[in-house]
Structure formats: structure tokens, C-alpha cells
């Protein structure tokens, strides 16, 4: 009886047939036999350019069995060429070439802070300019009822408000409930900070860290991830990894779209 001898050849070196996968933009793969993992940013004849989570780019030959996708060996191939799809904005809307920004509406969207405003601009900026919707930030929601009263919402000047950590029983939920004007829509997401609305996969991390209560959340995130404790620089890194709506959690996407629809349904022209 012949003694069994296990095949110790690395999987990526074995000759079995493996699937061919088109090297579409944003596809995340690992280069076989290395520790380099990145997203596809370009694909030329015979080569693919990958960008890792630190923004470093490298070019690799598209050799058979040369990459791992979700741990499985694959062969990357050049994406098929077909009819050009309509250009789209970062939010997924069909782009309008040459469209001019509309004169600003009387209606507004308010968000809690600068990071929220920058993220909304990153993904929905083109759409907002076409619709003439201006986004402003509040620096917190404690004074929201007074801010709403000062704004003076009306059917032709609607106000939409995006609130962080809007969950049952929270301070934010009590403040939001105190705003009852039919021309104001207050919605929110469940995250402690809008940072968490960016998918961990966009940053190359398995999940957002759990930060102990009583500790500054953003600083705690930097510590847990081994980033320098500079929250401004950390946010710029996070924002740089957001290329489109695909990098955001659906919970935020739905709320922002809801606000845009509400504000633009007003009667101002």
C-alpha cells in the first residue's frame, strides 16, 4: 500500500484550472505569493495597477493564477469592451454633461459638523449643485429648535436635517422629536460619528473598533488602528478612500437621498 504524501505545493502554484475574473475598477485582490493587497485602478494590455489601503500603487503582470480573490486563486483578465455606459456621478446618478449649477434654493440641508458636510459633498456634490441645494453645518444639534425657528421653514423653503447617532432613547432623538414643522424633515443614522458611515472595506480594515465609553471616540479609533492621534489627518485619509456611494453604508445613503428629495419637493424654482 502506497503511503499518502500530502501536496505541499502552494495553492497558487498548482496547475488546476481556476476562474477568470475581469479586472474591473475597485475590485480588491491579493497578489499571489506576496502580501500586497489592493483595488484595481487601471488595467492595460497584460498588466493591472493596484492601489493598497495606504494609497501606494503598483503594476503587476496579469499572469495565469496570479491573484487571490476572497482567498481563492483566480486569473485576472482585461474587462470586455462594450457600449459605453452613461457617465454617473459619485452618488450613482446619471451625470448631465455641461450642466450648470442651479441658483441656490431657499431650502437647505443642515448636517451636524464639517466632516458630515465634506462627506455629503464628496458623494452628492454634483447632484446638489444641479438641484441648487446648499449644505450647511450646525456644530451639534443641541440648539436645533432655535436654529429651525431662525431659519423659518415654509413650503417653498424646506429644511432637511441629518443627525448623528439618531437612535431611540438618545438625546438626539429627543431633540429631533421636538421639531414638528411639516416643512422640516429630521432624519439620522445610528453611528456615533459619520466616520462609521464609511464602509470598513473601503479602508482595508475588518471593522470599526469598539471604543470604551468615556474615551474620545475619534482618538480611540486612531489608537486602536495604530494611526497617529491626529483626528484631522485621520479624517482626510478616510475621506480620500471614498470614491462613490459604494464606499458608504446604506443607512447613510438612504437618509441623504431622502433629505434631497424632501428639500427639492418644495415649491421654489
TrEMBL record:
It comes from the Bacteria. Residues 20-79, 108-264 form the DUF3097 domain. Pfam families: DUF3097_C, DUF3097_N. This is DUF3097 domain-containing protein. It comes from Streptomyces virginiae.
Amino acid at each position: 500500500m502506497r503511503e499518502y504524501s500530502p501536496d505541499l505545493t502552494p495553492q497558487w502554484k498548482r496547475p488546476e484550472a481556476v476562474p477568470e475574473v475581469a479586472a474591473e475598477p475597485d475590485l480588491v485582490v491579493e497578489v499571489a505569493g506576496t502580501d500586497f493587497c489592493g483595488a484595481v485602478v487601471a488595467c492595460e494590455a497584460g498588466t493591472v495597477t493596484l492601489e493598497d489601503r495606504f494609497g501606494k500603487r503598483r503594476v503587476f503582470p496579469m499572469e495565469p493564477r496570479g491573484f487571490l480573490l476572497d482567498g481563492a486563486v483566480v486569473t485576472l483578465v482585461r474587462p470586455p469592451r462594450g457600449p459605453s455606459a452613461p457617465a454617473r456621478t459619485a452618488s450613482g446618478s446619471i451625470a448631465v454633461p455641461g450642466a450648470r449649477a442651479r441658483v441656490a434654493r431657499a431650502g437647505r440641508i443642515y448636517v451636524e459638523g464639517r466632516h458630515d458636510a465634506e462627506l455629503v459633498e464628496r458623494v452628492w456634490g454634483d447632484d446638489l449643485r444641479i438641484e441648487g441645494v446648499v449644505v450647511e453645518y450646525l456644530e451639534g444639534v443641541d440648539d436645533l429648535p432655535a436654529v429651525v425657528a431662525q431659519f423659518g421653514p415654509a413650503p417653498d423653503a424646506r429644511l432637511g436635517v441629518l443627525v448623528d447617532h439618531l437612535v431611540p432613547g438618545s438625546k438626539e432623538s429627543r431633540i429631533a422629536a421636538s421639531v414638528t414643522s411639516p416643512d422640516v424633515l429630521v432624519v439620522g443614522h445610528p453611528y456615533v460619528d459619520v466616520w462609521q458611515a464609511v464602509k470598513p472595506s473601503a479602508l482595508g480594515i475588518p471593522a470599526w473598533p469598539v471604543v470604551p465609553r468615556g474615551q474620545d471616540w475619534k482618538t480611540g479609533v486612531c489608537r486602536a488602528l495604530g494611526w497617529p492621534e491626529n483626528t484631522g489627518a485621520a479624517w482626510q485619509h478616510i475621506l480620500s478612500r471614498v470614491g462613490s456611494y459604494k464606499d458608504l453604508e446604506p443607512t447613510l445613503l438612504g437618509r441623504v437621498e431622502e433629505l434631497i428629495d424632501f428639500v427639492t419637493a418644495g415649491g421654489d424654482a
